Each structure stands twice: as structure tokens, then as C-alpha cells.
Amino acid sequence: MTSPGLFITLEGGDGSGKSTQAALLEAWLVGEHRTVVRTREPGGTDFGTEVREIVLHSRGDISPRAEALLYAADRAHHISTKVRPALDRGDVVIQDRYLDSSVAYQGAGRVLDSAEIRRLSLWAAEGLLPDLTILLDLDETEARRRLDGARTRFDRLENEKSEFHARVRAAFLDLAAKEPDRFLVLDASLPAETLAARIRGVVEPLLSRHPAGTDAS
Ligand code: TYD
């Protein structure tokens, strides 16, 4: 079930600079005459925006399995209505977070079974895996320092204690070690432009394997 498009996801803890790198990569790809769809989970669709509000800002507790199912519901709708159609057109999709976030946050963070969470995500997304996953790895203390400077309101996950974020970070690194061909692991404490150059260096050869779609201008 391969499609002509190129599917790139960005992963990492909160405050690791994913949005900055997504924006820099998008700008470069547009300059290369690629049609880019930049999106995110949770919240890449109208339905997902509603799920995002519930899962991140609901006032009461949400049980870990209910939380996992909410992320999976967002993912199922997002992939089938937005991401897959874009890949079928031959677009480049740059996505902030995907199934690895579920394995890291709900699996390792909430201590659910990681293999089950991965299966749930793959079921939701009908088996779609990214061509490339960029992991921006950052020490939790530095991530927290960055968030404290940037945020006035923390979401439910950001409010978790440092042990939770340490488990999430370790889980991401473990996932990357298991799938070295899919992952590019970068030290997110490096300057943004250095990281962007490293990312371009890996994406450029992938572009030739995924020629631009017919509607690329
Ligand atoms: P994100 O959009 O990166 O947060 P922000 O825009 O506030 O930086 O992600 C929202 C939160 O959702 C983040 O703390 C990680 C969490 N998350 C999961 O727990 N599981 C998932 O499957 C996904 C996609 C995100």
C-alpha cells in the first residue's frame, strides 16, 4: 500500500522545538516546488480539534485507556480524511507527532502495554507508517525550562511530573533504536539552523524517490 507522497513525522518531548523545525522544513520544501501539507496530532482536523480540547484540557481525570482511545480516534479520522489523500496526491506531509507519541506517552508514560498501544495506533491508521521520523531529543530539565519561558497554560500531559517525562524520553530513544532506518535522532539543544540543515540533508535524497505530485506548482 505505497503512495507517491512523502510522509515525515516529528517527535520528541514537549518543548523540543518540533514546530520550529516543521516550519523551517516546510519553507525549504516549498522553495523546492513541493506541495506541503503541514499538520499535527492531536487536532489536525475539525473533529480532531474537539478531541484535542477534551484530551488536553478536560478538567477531570481521564483514565489511561480512555486517553489512548481518544488519541487513536483523532488519528483514525486524521489519517483517513487528510493525510492519506495528501500522500495519494503525491504531496509531502509534515506532521507534528504521530503513533510514536502514543507509544511513548500512553505506553511508557501511562504505563500501558506499549505493544498494544502500537497495534491500536496501526489499526486506527490502517497500517500507515512514516517514511521518516525526526526525533528531537532533549533532556527533560532543559525542555521544562523552555516551556516555563514560553507558556502561560500547561496541558494535562505537560503538567505531569519529571519521572513521567523521563520515561517518555527513554521510550522515544528506544523506538528509534529499534527502527534506525525510519528514525533520524537529533540533539535538540543544538541551534535551530544546525538542526534544520541536518534534516534537509536527510530529506533531500528522499525527494528523488518521491517525485512531486501532478498538482505541484
Ligand atoms: P503537542 O501538540 O505537541 O503540544 P503543544 O502544541 O502544546 O506543544 O502535543 C500535545 C500533547 O499530546 C503532548 O503533551 C503529547 C501528547 N500526545 C500523547 O500523549 N499521545 C499522542 O498520541 C499524541 C499525538 C500526543
What can be said about this structure in brief?
With 217 residues, this protein is of the alpha/beta class. It has helices at 18-31, 46-57, 64-89, 99-109, 114-124, 140-150, 162-178, 192-209, and strands spanning 6-12, 36-40, 92-96, 132-137, 183-187. The protein is globular.
Please tell me about this protein's structure.
With 217 residues, the chain is of the alpha/beta class. The chain has one domain (6-208): 3-Layer(aba) Sandwich (Rossmann fold). The chain has helices at 18-31, 46-57, 64-89, 99-109, 114-124, 140-150, 162-178, 192-209, and strands at 6-12, 36-40, 92-96, 132-137, 183-187. It has a 5-stranded parallel β-sheet with strand order 2-3-1-4-5, with helices on both faces. The protein binds thymidine-5'-diphosphate. Thymidine-5'-diphosphate binds next to helix 4.
Walk me through the topology:
Blueprint: E1 6-12, H1 18-31, E2 36-40, H2 46-57, H3 64-89, E3 92-96, H4 99-109, H5 114-124, E4 132-137, H6 140-150, H7 162-178, E5 183-187, H8 192-209
Parallel strand pairs: 1-3, 1-4, 2-3, 4-5
Overall tally of structural domains: 1
Number of helices in the DSSP assignment:
8
Ligands bound, unique? thymidine-5'-diphosphate
Question: CATH superfamily membership, which one?
Answer: P-loop containing nucleotide triphosphate hydrolases
What spatial order of strands do you see in the largest sheet?
2-3-1-4-5
Secondary-structure element string: EHEHHEHHEHHEH
How would you sum up the major sheet?
5 strands, parallel
Distance between the termini: 26 Å
CATH architecture: 3-Layer(aba) Sandwich
Average of the residue pLDDT scores? 94
Helix coverage percent? 55-70%
Record field, number of beta strands: 5
The stretches of 5 or more residues where confidence is low (pLDDT under 50) are: none
Could you say which overall geometry the principal axes of the C-alpha atoms support? globular
CATH class: Alpha Beta
Radius of gyration: 17 Å
The amount of beta strand, in percent, is 5-15%
Structural class: alpha/beta
